[in-house]
Every structure is written in C-alpha cells, then in structure tokens.
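Q: I'm building a small set of examples for a reading group on sequence design. Run inverse folding on the following structure and report the sequence directly after it, with nothing in between.
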C-alpha cells in the first residue's frame, strides 16, 4: 500500500515538473519578442530590433511567436544558428515597381475615368459655330468635372479669346490649345516633390525625413501611407512607419502589413492610446536606426471634432521636438467633390499642408478636383491614387494627366 502511494506521489511530481518545463520554455520563447522596456516596434522579417526606451508606458506589444520566428526570407539573415522553420509564415519582402513614369504607365486607367471631360470639351470646341450656348455647355462640362467656378471662368475666357484669334480650327490645333490651357490651369511650375531628405535634429543628430499623412477616415490615408512606403523603398530608401491612427482599431494592423511587405518597421502604441506619443516614438526609432524616412499615419474622423483636430496639431508639435516635419500630406478622396474641399479647408487650419494626395481618381470622372483643391489650399497635388493595387500610387505629372484627359 505504502509503495502504491509513493508511486502515485512520484507520478504526480513528475507530471508537475514536465508541465512546469513546458510553461517555462514557452515563456523563454516569448522573451526575445518583447523586452519589457521596448516601444511597440514591429520588426520587419529580419533582425528584430527595438528602441531603448519608450516615452510613455505601453501595453505589451501584441506580437506573436510566428512574427518573431520569421525566417528572414528575402531580407538579410538575423542569426545564422537557428534552423529555419520548414514553411515560412510571411511572404518574401517585395520589390516594388520603380516610380519614374508611373503615371504614364497608369495612364490607361486615368483615361478610362477622365477622358469624358477632355473628349467632351474637344467635341464642343469642334462645333462650327461657337455661340454663347456652346460656351455655356463648355462651362457646364468643366463644372461637372469639379474644376470649380473661378478656374472654369478663367479657362473659358482664355479659350474664347484664343479660338477667336485662331479663326479656322483643325482638330490638332484645338487639341493643342486645350492642352495648353488645361496645363496652365493645373500649373507646371509647382514643386511636386515629396520632400523626404534627412536633416539635422535639435541636438545636431542626423534626422530622417519626416512625413505626416493626414485626412479623414475612408479617404485612403492608411493605404496611401503604405503605398508611399513602397514608393520610397522602390527609390532605395529605408522607411519606418508610425501607426498614430490609434482611434481606428484596424489601422495599425493594416499599416504593419504594408510595412512588412517591403521590410519597413512599424511603431505602434496601445489601442486608443496617445497618437502624439506614437508619432514621437516613430521618429525616435527612425533616428535610432538611421532610417531615411519616417512616415506617420494619423487619425482621421478628426474634422468633426474640435478636440481631435487639436490632437492633430499636438501630433505635429510633439514630432517637431525631433526637428522639422518635412511634409504634411493631406489625403483627399477625389470622388467626394465639394466635401473634399471642405475637409481640405478644415485640415489646413490646423496644420500647414505641404502637398495633396488625391486618391480614387480611377473611380470618378471628376478629375477637375485637381485644379479646385490646388486653388483652395494653394499647395500642389503631389501624388494620385489610381487603384487599390499596391503600386497604384503615382507622382502627379501635369503633362501626363492632361494627355490622359484629352487623348493623343
Ligand atoms: P483610411 O480610413 O483613410 O485610412 O482609408 P483606407 O486606407 O483604409 O482606404 C479605404 C479604402 O479605399 C480601401 O478599400 C482602399 O483600398 C481604398 N482606396 C485607397 N486608395 C484608393 C485608390 O486610389 N483607388 C481606389 N479605387 N481605391 C482606393
């Protein structure tokens, strides 16, 4: 009997010891993923790395073992000794398309959506008698395409004058005329570069280029931040992403996925946490790892709530403790027309917008918004979104845009 009891006791102790080992080893496996003092920096596939300290206390990063055990596919290997798992969980880091001439490549898409404007204008201008009614129709066509009242009147006035001088009109002459006048309206002189050059911080340290991406939710802000990261990576830059849209639960995951695809780290904070703190941490991380550019996705839905708009101003001010912000890009959905202009006005009151990104130009015939929004803000359209594909974001080129409007 005693022997039986002894055997049972030994068996219980053995089971307890084994399960204790399993728990301990699990804990050990998790350890490298989340050092207690780390900010929520999600690593790209290789060399998981975190900054030294966080500005604010954070929740434990929601990283999983799968994320940490990434096989370094496509990126430089982190450690040589760990045998690679059989099936990689994450696809290899992608090499995005080069950006030069993207708009020309995407022109077919632009033509499909926009050339009712150009074709409509050309047809009207080709009429034998250009009477007042025809000029009114030309005006209506421009207004329908969201060009805006004042620019429409200017264009019609200039066209009228030039057509009168021209006398008889061949289709080629008309096309040339319209092309020139549309280009005049859009402007060919503005600096449309997205400025991402590194600079010098307040303490003389080298600082990455810092870009704030702002706009109302649903305009394509997070998608644009992700696509812009690809544009920069394609141009040979290293990028850190800041997921400062802490109001929308899925935004940080969405951004992180974009980042992982091109090997860019994402700094994120607790859900509903302080966006300014995440933005600050992102730039700090960018400085720590000598990244070329830090892209910060901010919270949308702001224009309806004064407090939240103030929050955006605070994000910018806090980031500026690391040095100047190089670009503030306002993302506008081209399909929203006048509503987009109202948004533009509200955002411009809070932060100095330096460039506009017009998204979803593939889904609307109202390309005239390019003209209207530039007039409204006095800043140029720098990028346009032409689809949901990863490389469907193009630097805005007035000539290619107008050519797509009026065809060759
Ligand atoms: P956010 O709330 O402003 O961050 O918006 P998201 O980035 O989540 O985008 C909202 C939706 O717009 C998504 O379904 C995107 O795929 C879509 N989207 C973004 N840019 C474009 C674009 O240029 N063209 C089209 N067709 N869809 C776009």
């Amino acid at each position: 009997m005693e022997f039986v009891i002894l055997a049972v006791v030994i068996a219980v102790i053995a089971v307890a010891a084994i399960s204790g080992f399993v728990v301990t080893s699990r804990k050990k496996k998790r350890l490298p993923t989340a050092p207690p003092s780390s900010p929520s920096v999600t690593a790209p596939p290789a060399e998981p790395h975190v900054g030294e300290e966080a500005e604010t206390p954070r929740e434990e990063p929601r990283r999983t073992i799968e994320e940490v055990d990434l096989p370094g596919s496509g990126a430089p290997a982190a450690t040589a000794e760990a045998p690679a798992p059989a099936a990689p969980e994450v696809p290899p880091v992608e090499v995005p398309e080069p950006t030069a001439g993207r708009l020309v490549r995407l022109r077919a898409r632009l033509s499909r959506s926009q050339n009712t404007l150009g074709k409509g204008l050309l047809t009207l201008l080709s009429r034998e008698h250009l009477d007042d009614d025809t000029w009114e129709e030309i005006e209506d066509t421009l207004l329908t395409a969201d060009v805006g009242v004042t620019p429409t009147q200017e264009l019609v006035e200039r066209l009228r004058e030039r057509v009168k001088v021209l006398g008889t009109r061949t289709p080629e002459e008309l096309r040339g005329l319209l092309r020139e006048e549309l280009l005049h309206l859009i402007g060919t002189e503005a600096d449309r570069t997205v400025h991402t050059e590194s600079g010098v911080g307040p303490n003389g340290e080298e600082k990455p280029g810092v870009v704030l991406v702002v706009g109302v939710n649903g305009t394509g802000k997070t998608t644009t931040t992700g696509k812009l990261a690809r544009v920069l990576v394609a141009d040979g830059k290293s990028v850190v992403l800041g997921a400062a849209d802490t109001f929308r639960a899925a935004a940080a995951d969405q951004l992180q996925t974009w980042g992982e695809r091109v090997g860019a780290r994402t700094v994120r904070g607790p859900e509903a946490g302080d966006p300014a703190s995440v933005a600050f941490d992102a730039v700090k991380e960018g400085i720590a790892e000598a990244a070329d550019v830090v892209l910060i996705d901010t919270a949308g839905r702001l224009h309806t709530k004064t407090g939240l708009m103030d929050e955006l101003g605070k994000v910018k001010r806090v980031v500026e403790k690391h040095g100047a912000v190089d670009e503030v890009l306002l993302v506008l959905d081209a399909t929203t027309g006048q509503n987009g202009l109202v948004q533009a006005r509200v955002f411009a009151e809070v932060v100095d917008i330096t460039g506009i990104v017009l998204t979803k130009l593939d889904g609307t015939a109202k390309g005239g918004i390019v003209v209207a929004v530039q007039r409204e803000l006095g800043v140029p359209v720098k990028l346009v979104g032409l689809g949901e594909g990863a490389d469907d974001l193009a630097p805005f080129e007035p000539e290619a845009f107008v050519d797509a409007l009026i065809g060759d």
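Residues 215, 217-223, 300, 359-360, 362-363, 385-388, 392 surround guanosine-5'-diphosphate (CB under 6 Å).
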